[in-house]
Amino acid sequence: MPRIFAYCRVSTADQTTENQSMEIKAAGFVIEAHRLIEESISGPGFVKLIDRMEPGDVLVVTKLDRLGRNAMDVRATVEQLASSGVRVHCLALGGVDLTSPAGKMTMQVIAAVAEFERDLLIERTQSGIVRAKAAGKQFGRPPTLNAEKRAAVVERLDAGASITEIAREFKTTRQTIMRVREAALKL
After folding, report:
1. 11, 84, 127, 162: which is the annotated catalytic residue?
2. d(CA 91, CA 82)
3. Can 11 be counted among the known catalytic residues?
4. pLDDT for 92-115, tens place per residue?
């Protein structure tokens, strides 16, 4: 007889998981108290639950979004559970076992949505970077030394001062002084 687990989660501390557990019971699943995991934010309870589950176990959730933050995350979670021999039932999808043939088809659709989401995210990120660069935004940490100080470092290097001595004088690292020297040599 497979062990049946349920995972109920809400997004904020002022919400309760009571409706989700009632929905699972109304669907005919009998969940022992120690196998009902309830939490107000995703995290340690779900990770511990996955670690407890064994081949042949069943995990019941009310909605797919209980399994992850986005379609990619949900897909990865279901694939991980399926590869461990754990069946996943989602009540919002008519109680379909996501590891069954019909569930696998559903997961293929979710995988396509996840890939689409990922591609859109990459596209938006890249266009945002292009737009920011066109607007003159500088990326990365601000330089330790401004142009005036870099010129002074070059003068000190030309005067024969050591890299360590200059780094102490300008309160920076030796690596920064070496980068200024390399940049000056390229000019």
Report:
1. 11
2. 17
3. yes
4. 888 888 888 888 888 788 778 878
